[in-house]
Write a structure and sequence with these properties.
The protein has six helices and no strands. With about 130 residues, the protein is an all-alpha fold.
Length: about 130
Amino acid sequence: MTPAEKNIIKALVAVAWADGTVSEPEVGMIDSLLWAFEATEEEEAELRQFAQTKRTVKDISNHGLSAEERELIIAHAALLTHADGKQSREEQQLLTSLVQHLGLSIEQSRPIINGARDRAAKLAGKIAKR
């Protein structure tokens, strides 16, 4: 895994903890990214250990990330806030904090967050039709 991929996972862990619990859909999304990023057994163990403790945006490194990597973290985090079918106030607040922590403006992040919300709604609609 690249350092940016690890930061994506760590950001998702912080978002998953935003409402005080980590739900199964959130775990599933994180597991999917571990697989997609081809995490080694050691990397997977390290990140699962990281996820066992409640995390905040302060636990996410923002050093050396490109603008594209920062936007990718926001996109994945925004999508995760909808993983359980609803975005809590705590998740919204954490997402705003993450945007600020990563040095993005609200204007830069708004289309990313709105796009993730729209994708989540489309997916929920497809699932409901099954």
